[in-house]
Specification:
Length: 390
């Protein structure tokens, strides 16, 4: 009887921990307006005619759902020009990472204001923080360049873009259920600016304006709720170059390094292609000669093998904290670049060339492609037209 009572009390305690109510003062109307990019999509006529409170509720609801609290409720109210969030059905202390994100957002706003004062802000840029991410149940961190503008203006969802959608499918191919991929995609963009997808080169000179924001975000999100370091993937050359400048190590594609954002913390980092790079590497227009299509296929297959290996490492490290990064990487590259090359090939032709599964199987069985599958770890053909700064 005593054991039963103890179990009952434990269950009640757990229930109370999960189903708490937390309150957070978000700040003044002015502060919340700029940190939530309000209004997200108004040009005289609003695409979604939401109030400031509705906009904040929208992003906070995304966060609680991506943290796995499907029954949680978010309510935002204004009182005397101050906004307050009430979140029910989440653990006690859930508001702390949200408060930290908004404090980091103040640093981003300061950097953006200085950038504008120096005459370097573009008319079609928007300050956009990584709102709507999982705040508590994070599995890994993704370092990226900048969010595309349509993630803000159309989707109002930081995880809705060609980049993030493609990477989610690669995580799923590596065993992560589709509804759990957001927990692996906690994003830090080194330029917190929603801009046209072609703006990569224009953003090259802005990074130093956001140094305080960048390092604060890495410090905050590189540890999980229990204080353990999370695996990190650095996507694309601009991000990998920034990582070297900021933390020291050189990180090439499928190269491993360790960074120490603060004393006593060691974060494993894997270098990767940008998720969108494959569309340029696999484009026949990027090559010259009568064999441009063959070169594009060969390059695309190699990039697919690299990307699947990187997503495999991210999935493995995120789902099994404490795993050896080197052992995990060797296992992943062996899988996708050596033993399971047919699957790599089929995923390339279905997701990039838009073939049916049956057509992809047939294509991967042809002699020219089978010969390419033996060379997935070899250098890719050089592109005549370089890929943009992703």
């Amino acid at each position: 009887m005593l054991k039963l009572t103890g179990l009952t009390l434990a269950a009640l305690t757990l229930s109370a921990a999960v189903h708490a109510d937390v309150d957070l003062k978000l700040g003044s109307t002015e502060r919340v307006t700029r940190l939530f990019a309000y209004p997200n999509n108004c040009n005289v006529i609003c695409f979604r005619n939401w109030t400031l409170e509705q906009t904040v509720e929208h992003y906070l609801t995304q966060s609680v759902q991506r943290d796995g609290y499907g029954a949680a409720k978010v309510r935002v109210k204004t009182d005397n020009h101050q906004l307050y969030a009430d979140i029910s059905g989440v653990p006690k202390g859930y508001e702390k990472p949200l408060a930290a994100l908004l404090d980091a957002g103040d640093l981003a706003y300061t950097g953006a204001s200085k950038l504008n004062a120096d005459g370097k802000w573009a008319y079609n840029w928007y300050l956009f923080l990584p709102l709507g991410m999982a705040l508590e149940n994070r599995k890994s961190v993704e370092l990226l360049h900048f969010p595309p503008d349509y993630s803000l203006t159309q989707a109002q969802d930081y995880l809705r873009s060609a980049t993030t959608d493609r990477w989610a499918t690669l995580l799923t191919a590596n065993g992560i259920p589709a509804d759990q991929t957001p927990g692996y995609q906690t994003i830090i963009d080194i330029a917190p600016i929603a801009a046209p997808a072609s703006a990569g080169k224009d953003l090259e000179g802005v990074y130093d304006y956001f140094k305080n924001y960048q390092t604060t975000m890495v410090n905050e999100v590189s540890l999980n709720a229990k204080g353990a370091a999370l695996p990190m993937v650095a996507f694309g050359a601009p991000v990998r170059n920034w990582l070297k400048q900021q933390y020291g190590p050189t990180v090439n594609v499928l190269g491993l390094a360790t960074i120490s954002p603060k004393a006593g913390v060691k974060v494993p980092v894997l270098g990767s292609n940008h998720p969108s790079y494959i569309w340029y590497a696999a484009n026949p227009d990027s090559y010259t000669g009568d064999d441009a299509q063959a070169k594009a296929d060969a390059a695309g297959l190699k990039v697919m093998g690299q990307d699947l290996s990187a997503a495999c490492w991210q999935a493995g490290m995120g789902s099994k904290p404490g795993s050896d990064p080197d052992v995990q990487l060797k296992s992943c590259t062996q899988t996708w670049q050596v033993t399971e090359t047919e699957k790599t090939c089929e995923l390339f032709y279905t997701s990039i060339r838009n073939l049916t599964p049956e057509q992809a199987v047939a294509q991967c069985a042809t002699t020219p492609i089978k010969s390419q599958l033996k060379l997935l770890q070899a250098p890719a053909p050089a592109m005549a037209i370089p890929a943009p700064h992703l």
